[in-house]
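ingest -> validate -> predict -> emit
validate: passed (alphabet ok, no gaps, 211 aa)
predict: started
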Amino acid sequence: MLTFYDSKGLPNPDRVRIALEEKRVMDQVIVKQVDLWKGEHRTEAFKALNPSVTIPLIVLDDGTAISETTAITEYIDHTYPGISLTGRTPKERAVIHMMQRRGEQQIVDAIGAYFHHATPGFGPEIELNQNKAWGEAHLAKTLEGMRYFNDVLEQQPFIAGDGFSMADITVFTGLEFSETYPKVMVPVECTALLAWRARIGARQSCQGLTR
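emit:
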């Protein structure tokens, strides 16, 4: 069975969990929780699996370890039948990957930089070399990203067009994290983004997230 190293409540492992839930294969996966607040991702045992010391991580039956959330999602999407999360045609794949990368840059990575540099983050033993000005700059970038995706969703029902995809998963988990930990809320004037978030949050795959 596939082994999934998870850390509930954080956007990148949440992205993988939603993908697995969308494929309806969680019962085919061994889940191991990693406590980032306690630095469990920095142990020698975990480094042996993933030298980048990042979560999420999956390990296949043959021992192959795959990190990086997009790579993991690609593996899941092309291994299990069901809904397509990464696109079926060259055009769909290109647009989904473009929008998913924008979701990473403008929401997930941006709010992550703010969390790690301009707030206590995971605590002083984990958050080394903080740069508050860098973090504050990424808070502004996050808010700009929210407004950008609001504009997108005023024109189409999903982040990458007419169908649900990994781009929606990325933006949704970034917003969930943003409001839960650094307490950065979606601006009230972003009505299209807020309505979309409510719709995505109602999906069965998105209801098991622990906050």
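The longest strand covers residues 2-6.
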